[in-house]
Amino acid sequence: MKRFNSFQSINVFELVTSKWPYETHKHNFYELIFVVCGCGKHLVNGLKYTYKDRDIFLLTPNDAHSFEIESKTTFIYLKFTEAIFLEKLSSNRKTFWEASLKNILEHYKVQEGCFVKNKQDKAHLFALIGILLTEFNTRNMLFNTEVVLELFGAIMALVTRNLNHHKTEKCCIDKDSERVNSILSYIRLNAIENDKMQIRNIAAHFNLSPNYISIFVKKHTGLPIQQHIIQAKLKTAERLLKQKRLNINEIALRLGFNDASHFNKLFKKYKGTAPLKFRFDGN
């Protein structure tokens, strides 16, 4: 696979095209791609993502990519290497940018679509890249290098904020997933313990309020917690029916149903057959 190399610590340029002129390739640098206008497909590491006006992509040297352009597209590219962090930024800011480089670039995986979700930050980024493009191509202005570096720093600060926000959201999602799985596992394991299956007691076990645990479980599973409790009890009822040691009344009482009639009604509703028939059919 072709690899494009650059020995500039930073490069900024605009590309306007109706046909992508390059084969799928990798780089020896990092790349922020701003889609000013246009639409099509962005192919990254064998996966195809739709792109549109005002999308922003971040690519690392490990990423292979190309574009399929469906309508004339204006791109602005910001290409940079580690040198921009380690050599050109002032020493009093090196620690911040070294940490950012580690968090953003070393562990970054391409996301589907634009990674900048905050609308205000996206507006700021497009404004900043426009100014940076002009400043980068104006070499004879006083403090030109300093302005370029400050603009680059502002862009990377916003990039950091959005990527960290995504990481935080993912972390929250992972923690929520772990918690809801723990709750459902607890329900399955304790289905035969009627007292433990009271919502207030499940909530207390996980240090949550009964109202919150009900909302939390429904949000993450689509079903009320009571439905999960019923399903777990009926699954346990299947096992007890197969064992044939308890009669229908005893099973209903053991699992905390109001009476045998209530148990029969629920079992038939969810399992499609009566408990007695289930037992003797040997299902």
SSE inventory with pairings:
Elements lengths: L1 E3 L5 E8 L7 E3 L2 E15 L2 E5 L4 E4 L5 E16 L2 H6 L5 H13 L12 H18 L7 H46 L9 H7 L4 H12 L3 H19 L4 H7 L5 H12 L3 H7 L2
Parallel strand pairs: 1-3
Antiparallel strand pairs: 2-7, 4-5, 4-6, 4-7
Q: What is the percent of helical residues? A: 40-55%
CATH topology of the largest domain: Jelly Rolls
Main pleated-sheet profile: 5 strands, antiparallel
Tally of distinct domains: 2
State the end-to-end distance: 57 Å
Q: From the coordinates shown, what is the CATH architecture of the largest domain?
A: Sandwich
**Class based on secondary structure composition and strand pairing:** alpha+beta
CATH class of the largest domain: Mainly Beta
CATH superfamily caption of the largest domain = Regulatory protein AraC
Radius of gyration: 29 Å
Count helical runs. 10
What low-confidence regions span 5 or more consecutive residues with pLDDT below 50? none
In N-to-C order, the SSE pattern is: EEEEEEEHHHHHHHHHH
Mean pLDDT over the full residue set: 84
| Shape assignment | elongated
Number of DSSP-assigned strands: 7
Proportion of residues in extended strands: 15-25%
Structural commentary:
The structure is a single chain. The chain is elongated. It folds into two domains: 2-170, Regulatory protein AraC (Jelly Rolls, Sandwich); 190-281, Arc Repressor Mutant, subunit A (Orthogonal Bundle), CATH 1.10.10.60. With 283 residues, the chain is an alpha+beta fold. It has ten helices and seven strands. Helices cover 52% and strands 19% of the residues. Helix 5 (199-205) crosses helix 6 (210-221). The longest helix has 46 residues, at 144-189. Strands 2, 4, 5, 6 and 7 form a five-stranded antiparallel sheet that branches.
